Amino acid sequence: MAIFPFILLKSAKLKNDPEIINHEKIHLRQQLELLVFPFYTLYLLNYLINLIRYKKHDLAYRNIIFEKEAYDYETDLNYLKNGNWYGWIKKM
């Protein structure tokens, strides 16, 4: 979980998982793009709308625009270096 400016992990072994770390770093950048607090507001709002739409937590979570970007690019370890700012907008 990314809570600016920290990445919180369930276990120490996840520190060595580059995809998990990249996924969470993408969230940190999203938080910066929206000046942190608005990110959390939009994240929650998008989740609630998705929950009404899909009626299932997992589907609602996976279809949050911020999660779509993070999951789509978590394996691209150069994604953040390439300057792909506001990539979540394309997931709307």
UniProtKB/TrEMBL annotation:
Keywords: Membrane, Transmembrane, Transmembrane helix. The chain crosses the membrane at residues 34-52. This is BlaR1 peptidase M56. It comes from the Bacteria. It comes from Pedobacter riviphilus.
